[in-house]
């Protein structure tokens, strides 16, 4: 019996033709798959691979791109004070922002589970992600404006400060120039040049206050004669709208300055104090005999509190990080919330039945079980933070741009923002790539392990 006859009788077919067909089908499948993937590969090569390779090569040439300098740009990069400051600021971003975002996202994700309208709250928190960094930068640039009439944060700070500290009633007022009656002290106060005694009447002329800035309760100044044993006076605006009147003399059309604090000083010590009435008048009725100096304290003329310089050199980086938190907190909360929804509820309920309180459950069960999710969120945010550019460039004003600069903005400034040194800028880009790649590799490996 031949082999062919045996194969026919046993119902089996030759294996060679079937194997060849399978190989051809596999090759055809690979070719079709390659054709589908080819556009993406071409796009990836044109937009990622080629720029990376070009930047690496460009980093070894000078600013003009004609002279090979080797590692000169990399050495210059670590000698440049602006670049060193950018590295320090980037370090601050990497240490602070991802940790705060992960912590806030974890806390909000846990709390949202106990809120009735959890979906609506998540939507509101995630909504800033729909705002571009450019638009968010403009919004926060206005919010951080130092002028309380423009910046909402300083408006709130000034309101709270004024509620507890009060405000100066006449920040622009000053004594009438050329008069011998008042002298300006180094501490910003005004004093009478001549000594006064009980029974005297003193007129204290002031200027520099616009009629529209007078308090609503201000009334025409009235000079009153003092009775024996008391000291009277008037603090008034020595100005008549439309002209007229005599300097240094109280005119019926001139307004008193209400709310002005007046002190009676003797031997360098304040022995009595009072506040002017709506017509600017004041009186000291229980002064002992002797000579006194009347003083208008500097608190009457102190400049109003203008709030915090959010975008000054000291606070510009924390202020920009605050804007970044506003945008990305919803992202962290939603991802961590998704991981939280997959936790085994029986473990949590068992812990509650064993007498564990909510803090113990959170610290010893929830956080350890969420560790893989928290790690992915943290590393993803680290990668994103290293590339931050828009917020820093938009929010930081020009004078403090160098104080807020990070590696991405420094790379742009050196290359295109006036430096015109694309060799050094390419070296900065390579440095940024080297810093980002380890975090990306870590994230990819974690994803692969989780899929297995």
Describe this structure in words.
The chain is α+β, with helices and mostly antiparallel strands and 452 residues long. The chain folds into two domains: 72-156 and 310-451, Orthogonal Bundle (MetI-like fold); 174-300, Immunoglobulin-like (Sandwich). The chain has 15 helices and nine strands. α2 runs antiparallel to α15 (422-451), α9 packs antiparallel against α10 and α11 packs antiparallel against α15. The protein is elongated, with a radius of gyration of 38 Å.
Over all CA atoms, what is the radius of gyration?
38 Å
Number of helices: 15
Provide the CATH superfamily of the largest domain. Answer: MetI-like
The dominant shape is elongated
Widest β-sheet, arrangement of strands: 2-3-9-6-7
Structural class: alpha+beta
Order of helices and strands: HHHHHHHEEEEEEEEEHHHHHHHH
> How many β-strands, per DSSP?
9
Biggest β-sheet: count, sense, barrel?
5 strands, antiparallel
Please name the CATH topology of the largest domain: MetI-like fold
| Percentage of residues in strands | 5-15%
Summary keywords:
elongated; 52% helix; Immunoglobulin-like; 10% strand; single chain; five-stranded antiparallel sheet; 452 residues
């Amino acid at each position: 019996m031949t082999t062919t006859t045996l194969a026919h009788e046993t119902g089996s077919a030759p294996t060679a033709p079937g194997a060849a067909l399978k190989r051809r089908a596999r090759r055809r499948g690979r070719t079709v798959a390659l054709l589908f993937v080819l556009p993406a590969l071409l796009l990836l090569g044109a937009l990622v691979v080629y720029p990376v390779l070009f930047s690496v090569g460009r980093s070894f040439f000078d600013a003009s791109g004609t002279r090979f300098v080797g590692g000169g740009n990399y050495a210059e990069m670590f000698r440049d004070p602006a670049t060193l400051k950018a590295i320090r600021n980037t370090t601050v971003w990497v240490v602070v922002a991802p940790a705060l975002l992960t912590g806030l996202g974890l806390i909000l994700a846990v709390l949202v589970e106990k809120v009735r309208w959890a979906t609506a709250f998540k939507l509101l928190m995630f909504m800033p992600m729909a705002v571009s960094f450019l638009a968010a930068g403009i919004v926060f640039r206005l919010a951080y404006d130092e002028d309380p009439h423009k910046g909402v944060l300083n408006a709130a700070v000034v309101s709270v400060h004024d509620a507890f500290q009060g405000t100066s009633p006449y920040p622009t007022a000053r004594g009438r120039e050329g008069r011998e009656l008042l002298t300006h002290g180094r501490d910003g106060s005004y004093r009478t040049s001549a000594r006064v005694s009980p029974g005297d009447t003193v007129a204290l002329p002031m200027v520099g206050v616009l009629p529209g800035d007078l308090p609503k309760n201000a009334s025409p100044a009235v000079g009153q004669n003092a009775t024996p044993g008391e000291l009277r006076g008037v603090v008034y605006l020595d100005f008549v709208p439309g002209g007229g009147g005599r300097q240094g003399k109280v005119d019926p059309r001139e307004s008193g300055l209400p709310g002005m604090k007046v002190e009676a000083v003797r031997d360098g010590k304040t022995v009595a104090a009072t506040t002017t009435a709506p017509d600017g008048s004041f009186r000291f009725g229980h002064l002992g005999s002797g000579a006194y100096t009347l003083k208008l304290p500097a608190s009457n003329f102190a400049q109003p509190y203008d709030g915090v310089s959010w975008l000054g050199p000291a606070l510009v980086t924390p202020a920009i990080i605050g804007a970044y938190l506003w945008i990305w907190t919803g992202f962290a909360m939603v991802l961590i919330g998704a991981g939280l929804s997959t936790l085994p509820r029986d473990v949590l309920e068992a812990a509650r039945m064993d007498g564990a309180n909510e803090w113990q459950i959170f610290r010893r069960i929830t956080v350890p079980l969420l560790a893989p999710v928290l790690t992915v969120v943290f590393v993803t945010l680290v990668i994103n933070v290293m590339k931050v550019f828009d917020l820093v460039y938009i929010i930081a004003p020009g004078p403090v741009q160098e104080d807020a600069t990070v590696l991405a903005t420094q790379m742009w400034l050196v290359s295109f923002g006036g430096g015109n040194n694309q060799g050094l800028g390419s070296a900065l880009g390579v440095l940024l790539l080297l810093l980002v790649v380890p975090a990306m590799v870590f994230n990819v490996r974690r994803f692969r392990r989780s899929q297995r």
